Amino acid sequence: MGAKERREREKERRKNHILDTARELLLEKGLNATSINQIARRSELSIGAIYFYYKDKEEIFAALQVEGLELLYRAILAAIDKKATPEKKIRAIAQVYLRFSEENKNYFDIINYFLASPGTIFSPVLKKEIDAHGNASIALLADTIREGIDRGHFKKVDPRRHAFILWSTFNGVIQIKKLEKTILGKGEHQSLYMEALEHFLSGLRA
Description:
Elements: H1 3-29, H2 36-43, H3 47-53, H4 57-79, H5 86-103, H6 105-115, H7 124-150, H8 159-175, H9 188-204
Helix pairs in contact: 1-2, 1-4, 1-6, 4-5, 4-6, 4-7, 5-6, 5-7, 5-9, 7-8, 8-9
């Protein structure tokens, strides 16, 4: 391994370490209570080292958003069988998103943390980048619905609008998982999630 490659690997390792630390602090303390100083202290790096890799706090959080959204998109792509029917593809997307919320909870929580924020902390440039990554999964779902319409499997609806409706349904049902220890029965959450999906598909069928 040459010196240049070693430097690049070390740079990537440090960037990942900064993101890991920022992710921990954001979920632990919230947005306003997380500062560059705290990220530097916990990561045991100087403030100058943080600014070497990231311009400011919002750039760090934008990187976390993009990282999580890209991870989700790649997982969806890997799960979809191109030869499957549109219904089976939608079910595969639903399973991936539920699994992502469980196996990548930190990323899922961060994505939803900013979705639930009353305003945006991101500059127009960063928001555009984040939206492009978030739109990729929605677009994939919309394309699948459009495919079902073209094949005559689904009613003629607005594919993108219905993709947002279904994605919102996924999110809403996932959020009530925390009720499993109170008003939801044990193991009931997953069956509710899939039942919500089936209601959507039932209304979509031609």
